[in-house]
Amino acid sequence: MHALDGVRVLDLGTYIAGPFCATVLGEFGADVVKIERPGSGDHLRRFGTETDCGDTLVWLSEARNKRSVTLNLADPRGRELLRELVADADVVIENFRPGVLERWGLSFPEIQAINPRTILLRMSAYGQSGPLADQPGFARVAHAYAGLSLLAGEPAGPPVTPGSTSLGDYLAGLYGVVGVLLALRAREATGAGQCVDMALYEPIFRVLDEIAPAYQQFGFVRERMGADTVNVVPHSHYRTADDRWIAIACSNDEMFARLARAMGDPALADPDRFGPKASRLAARDEVNALVTAWAGGLTRDEALARCRAAEVPAGPLNSIADIFDDPQFAHRGTITTAESRIGPLAVPSVIPALSDTPGEIRWLGPALGADTDAVLAELLHRDAAEITRLRDAGVI
């Protein structure tokens, strides 16, 4: 049993944000039918490292558990097939620019007329309304617009992207999951679906802790701080004697006192030294210099061992090579190996872990249109002859 058994999702999206929401739903049992353009499919098939099967590693990992169906939505017959699929769908996910669904005759009111129980998740760069609603955007633009990119980098250096990853797409996808699950829960009470409207930049802004109230109350504009954290110290990255790095996070006075003991100098945490947080913040450079000097006299493993013995929150700055050898990752099964069209492939595992209805990877990214015939026969009751006619006409 899976938590979302019996839920059918139509994934109309491209790239990552909307489709990642569908991926997570599919990991927990939803039947995800991925709608793609005949001949080319989702752009995600060509986004990332190419493989011998013709699709990228990103596609193989992130299109897991989906059934691929090709429909030419520029053709009225393709749009009619899509409307038939909507009639039996619990959730429809799209991340086009506002107006695309309307041109296809699938605005939310039109979807409700087909199936009043359907939930529509709409993702776009700036949401369905507002002065920028019609503008395109990707994660990098969303990181910048939401205020994250200006916070990333060294104080005297240029702003940098927060990791070479589509963080905003994945965050939006996760918030999309929250929206869909909330709407499914509400439907249990009302019997009606609803529209979930998500702008790509909004989840990024949502996780920037106190940046908004700090500006509204005090006019404080946070700037780039490198590896440091605005409200606490030491809370940064420190190089060790073997030219590796550790992260130390002392978020309160008690944690700093533990670190001072681990450093062999408990007097650092005295009230007249750096014990109170305010004293540490006022002497940020001096405190960081002391921790830097201490870490620099030890290997990474020695420094981590002392921190862990003293219950100081600390960890290594891992590369992916480190992660593959890490015993905690191995114990938790955070990386799993699944069969794919290029053979066994290591991919991130399903999270979170549910005790009774866990998710699973049933298959990795399918070939383009691999399930078209089966879905049209199973869900729309088309026979083989009609499917052949649709294919010959370029509708599928």
UniProtKB/TrEMBL annotation:
Among InterPro entries, the record links this protein to: CoA-transferase_III, CoA-Trfase_fam_III, CoA-Trfase_III_dom3_sf, CoA-Trfase_III_dom_1_sf
What keywords is this UniProt entry annotated with?
Transferase
Domain of life of the native organism: Bacteria
The record's listing under Pfam families reads: CoA_transf_3
What Enzyme Commission number does this protein have?
2.8.3.22
Q: Name one GO molecular function term.
A: transferase activity
The record's similarity note reads:
Belongs to the CoA-transferase III family.
Designated name of the protein:
Succinyl-CoA--L-malate CoA-transferase alpha subunit
Q: Which gene specifies this protein's sequence?
A: smtA_1
